[in-house]
Structures are given as structure tokens and as C-alpha cells.
Amino acid sequence: MTRHATSILTLTDQSYVLQLMARYPSVQYWGIWNEPNDAFLTPDPGQTRFATYERIFDGIAGIIRTNGRKVIAPELANNGTDPLSGTSQLQWLSDFLRDRGSQVNVVAV
Predict the structure, then answer these.
(1) Is 21 exposed, middle or buried (0-12, 13-18, 19+ CB in 10 A)?
(2) pTM recorded for the entire structure
(3) What pairing do the DSSP bridges indicate for beta strands 29-31 and 106-108?
(4) Cβ-based neighbour number of residue 59 at 10 Å
(5) What's the pLDDT at 69?
(6) Which DSSP string corresponds to 72-100?
(7) CB neighbours (10 Å) of residue 87?
(8) Strands (E), the chain
(9) What is the pLDDT of residue 61?
(10) What does the mean pLDDT of the chain come to?
(11) What is the Cα–Cα distance from 31 to 10, expressed in whole angstroms?
């Protein structure tokens, strides 16, 4: 994927995830985006970084889990707050676990 995430994963993106899992069959735990609450993830136009990450997560987590692998998320940066929204790391984690916690096998912060 590019630095600027798209709202909907394309078949190419989904195929890429499947190809990675096929290439590395011994890897059982997969992270979706490292430090999504930092400047490396540019949000979709008109969206927050959090909303963009949740869409990416939704498109990839199911592929990982359907193939018998485990999901690591949200892998937050230890920066205190999201530089764009001012959302604290703790609020990011709380909101993410409320919305997507049941789809995560390992929580990483």
C-alpha cells in the first residue's frame, strides 16, 4: 500500500496480503500498520487518521484471520498524542478496542 491509504482495499491490495502470507507461512502474527497514530499514516481526505486506520484494519484483519493467522494491533506510537487530531494514545487505544477489540489477538502499544 502507499503511504496515503485508500478507503477501500482493492483486489490488488488483498492479493498482496495473501501473497505475503503465502511467502512467509511460518509467520503466524501479522501487524496491519505500525504506529498508525503518528505522521506516517496520512489520513484519507476529510477523514481522521483513526477512521482511515479502521478502514485499513477492516480490509486486512479478515484476510489474516480467515487464513488462520493472528492479528497484532493497533501498534501505537509512544508519542503521547496524534499530531493531527490531538487524540491521546490512551484514547486511541480505548476507541480502537471498543470498536475492533474482538478482532485482535495481540494488543501492541
Answers:
(1) middle
(2) 0.85
(3) unpaired
(4) 20
(5) 97
(6) EEE---SSSB-TTT--BHHHHHHHHHHHH
(7) 17
(8) 29-31, 70-74, 106-108
(9) 94
(10) 87
(11) 19
